[in-house]
Amino acid sequence: MSLASLRHARAVLPQPVRTLVTSSALSKDESSWLSKLMVRKIEPTKNSHSRMLSDKFDIYELHTHNVRPDSVGKYLENYKNTVQIVQSKGNLSMELIGSWNVEVGDLDQCLHLWRYTGGFEMVDQAKRELSSDKVSYVQLMQERGTFLRSRHLQYLLAFSYWPQLQLREGKNIYEIRSYRLKPGTMIEWGNNWARAINHRQNNNEAFAGYFSQIGRLYNVHHIWCYKDLQGRKETRESAWRSPGWDECVAYTVPLIREMHCRILAPTEFSPTQ
């Protein structure tokens, strides 16, 4: 077959049909939803994320302890004694905010949130003071190690747009929703949540919001407080009925690489209940 015949044969063969979906081919709702998923360009900045996202001088220390299942009781007693020792030292600018057991999620896990007033200088001072207490504090630390499977420590800053932290009384449960963001998207996250938080204050559920400084980076932790699981369900459904909440969610979802939530119950010695 000649070259001309081959070209003619290809021309008459049926070609695969390609469909190009454009915004005009989509419904109004579909087009709107897709536009929300397009993350806006993040402009470079000469200021650090911490300066732009937090206006507070407090440092928060989040301890995550994975406890041996057969040692939970001993561990909690050990940590309670540790808290009492820290509280007895009046020269430390640190205070326990909350201690929780995980009830749903990573079981046999405990979280402890401390606040240092005065920045990392106060963190350094507290570490020096406590490490010099060989008789009580250091011994408790060594004993605690025998009760643990693993542990992790993060230093956090509070988002400036989050409501002022208030310790709770009565019987409550807490939810910590932890996000691992794509590097470089923390400012975008903050811009969206500065609006989103307005949709989550009707039932006073917003407890605390932090982003990591040392430890696992580009981590965000939102802590919510509810009366019970049914109250959580009703509060979250109410947020979805609030105009604008869906847009905030749609803009932040593309920023997330991983997320998970845990339901927490305060320990008996937790300042917030």
Helix content: 25-40%
Domain module tally: 1
CATH class bucket: Alpha Beta
Distance separating the two termini: 86 Å
Give the overall pLDDT as a whole number.
Answer: 86
Compute the number of helices. 9
User: What does the largest sheet look like?
Assistant: 8 strands, antiparallel, barrel
Please give the radius of gyration in angstroms. 25 Å
Q: Walk across the major sheet and give the strand order.
A: 1-3-2-8-5-7-6-4
- The parts where pLDDT drops under 50 for at least 5 residues are 2-43
Q: Structural class, from secondary structure content?
A: alpha+beta
Helix/strand order, N-terminal first: HHHEHEEHHEEHEEHHE
CATH architecture: 2-Layer Sandwich
Q: How much strand?
A: 25-35%
Principal-axes shape call = globular
Total count of strands:
8
InterPro entries: Dimeric_a/b-barrel, NIPSNAP, NipSnap_domain
Family: Belongs to the NipSnap family.
Pfam family, one: NIPSNAP
GO cellular component, one term: mitochondrion
Secondary-structure blueprint:
Layout lengths: L2 H10 L15 H10 L11 H5 L4 E10 L4 H17 L5 E11 L4 E9 L2 H12 L5 H9 L2 E11 L14 E9 L4 H11 L9 E9 L4 E8 L2 H12 L4 H8 L3 E11 L7
Antiparallel strand pairs: 1-3, 1-4, 2-3, 2-8, 4-6, 5-7, 5-8, 6-7
Helix pairs in contact: 4-6, 7-9
InterPro entries: Dimeric_a/b-barrel, NIPSNAP, NipSnap_domain
Family: Belongs to the NipSnap family.
Protein name: NIPSNAP domain-containing protein
